[in-house]
C-alpha cells in the first residue's frame, strides 16, 4: 500500500475511533446521570468495562497518530532528502 492510501485510511480510522470513544463516553455519562435500580455490582462492572474500552480507544488513536506522523516524515524525506556529509573529515 502506498503512503497516500495508508494516510487516508489512518484518517478514517482516527475518525472511527473518535466516534466510538464518544459513544462510550456518552453511555458512561448516562450511567452516572441515571443509575438504574438494578444490581450496583452489574452497573459498576459495566462502567469499568466502558472505561477500559475508552482507554483502549485512546491508545488506538495514539498509535494511529504516531503512525501518521511517521508516514508524513517519510514523505518529507522522500520529497527532500537530507544532504548530509559526504564522509570527508
UniProtKB/TrEMBL annotation:
Coiled coil: 7-74
Domain of life: Eukaryota
UniProt-recorded name of the protein: Uncharacterized protein
Coiled coil listed as a keyword: yes
Keyword hit for Coiled coil: yes
Species this chain originates from: Prunus armeniaca
Keyword terms, alphabetized: Coiled coil
Amino acid at each position: 500500500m502506498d503512503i497516500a492510501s495508508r494516510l487516508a485510511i489512518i484518517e478514517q480510522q482516527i475518525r472511527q475511533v473518535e466516534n466510538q470513544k464518544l459513544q462510550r463516553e456518552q453511555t458512561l455519562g448516562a450511567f452516572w446521570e441515571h443509575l438504574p435500580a438494578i444490581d450496583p455490582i452489574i452497573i459498576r462492572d459495566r462502567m469499568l468495562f466502558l472505561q477500559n474500552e475508552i482507554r483502549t480507544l485512546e491508545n488506538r488513536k495514539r498509535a494511529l497518530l504516531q503512525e501518521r506522523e511517521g508516514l508524513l516524515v517519510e514523505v518529507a524525506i522522500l520529497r527532500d532528502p537530507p544532504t548530509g556529509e559526504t564522509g570527508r573529515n
